[in-house]
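Weekly puzzle thread! Below is a chain. First person to post its structure in token form gets bragging rights.
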Amino acid sequence: MNKNKSIIIGALASMFVMGSCSDDFLEVNNPTGEPLEEYYVNDGTLDEALTAAYAPLHWPDWDGTAYNDLTVDAEILGDDFWVGGSSITDNQHWHKLFNFEGSGTQTLATLWTDFYSGIKRCNDAIKYASWDGPSESAKKSASVQARLLRVYYYNILWHYYGNVPFYLENLTLPYTAPQMKADEIYAQLIVELEDIIKTNQLPMRWDTANNGRVSQAFAYMLYAEMVMYQNDKARYPQALSFMKEIISSGKYSLMSDYAEIWKESGEWGSESIFEITYDDNNAQRDWSTSMSAGGSVLPTLISPNAWPGGDGWNAGEDGWGFLPVRLETYEMFEEGDVRRDATVWDVRGVTYQERYQDTHLWLAKYRPYSENNQDCPTSKNLNYNNNKRIYRYAETLLNAAELLIATGGSSSEALKYLNMVRTRAGLEGYSECNEDNIINERHMEFCGEGKRYFDLVRTGRAASVLVPDKYGYRTNKWTPSKKHIPLAQSELDADPSLVQNEY
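Winning reply:
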């Protein structure tokens, strides 16, 4: 078992795994009562503040208010999955967004709260890292990690909402900041990210004891993701340079067995650049303590209801039937592609309680296994230990191939990177590297990892692919006005200066 599965990272991991997993500490209230200036005066307490900044990574799947797992959020906007659930009114905001008819009351409202909370905590950690007391090395590392994590939080808000308030120091009364246009947000973030990268304070890959921290490779992947989504071609050469630096570092490599990536034994394997870690050991997360340390509810969300037993999942386990895989998705994989069975859990022929849009095809990458929540002392269906994969080395290779083609680089080198991913899947390599082949390969490689929708948008394919289906589930088509989802009405009410997105 991976001993670094705790959602708490670094030096604090043992504190939470060996003792209570409650993250009341994340409120950063000092039990001895001294002022903050007298508390954050050593490396250990500074790392507490940094750990608090990492905590919101784990909140979206269920934060006590809504289920907004980022995998589901992204995939319901694409073309590989249905929404599912018990009915079309179950988590209705997902069904509305799936059909491109969201509104201020039917949107991903809690992502805003979760990630602005993360931004606030990052700002706190950056401030504490400027105080006297902690060692210079600890201050530099904590500051850069918090700054990089803050860019990542803003990146998610930028992807979904586009036009959002932006600030780099915590707000004072009345706790509002000017709302910027999406292009302005990008312009601010990319310069900040470039400055973070130039500090060269983070390792290309952390040692095993520090799995879960953002790294230099994470920063490079985030940079490529942002400039490619923005189609910022002036920065493509720099993004390509970063991809090549990851490749030449020797710190990452493709795992030989694609299916192994998704097992607990494959977590933080040779291919993993960043994962959000979850742990069932001593988990304190429960219905009344949704933000406490523990596991993920995603496997419960995306699995069959009233399972009869088998395939490593005990009889009577409770799945909620969201995100059934479309039959067309299963059939898009070529014969011999090992990614099909590693991506799709095919239970056609098994009898269980069917739910809305049920296809008997489920996402295998994050499917439930009884062994993955066996150590949980609280509600097991909230505490699976499946880590969420964010960036993998396979994406580095495909980014490099795409950027080479886009910048007029070596076509043979691009083809080499593309075919490293393809042949790992058990398929014959392509004879040509072009954008169509790269996007096709990304479709197969990252199915169910929340990347497909954004690939369709950034490459101009969304309008032709995201159209009404033959089943009558999606009746509206995507248009450019759907790129950014609606802001929550509650946020508009709280700050009348905010302008709702056109949708």
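Puzzle host: Confirmed. Bonus trivia for everyone else. Residues 136-160 form the longest helix (25 residues).
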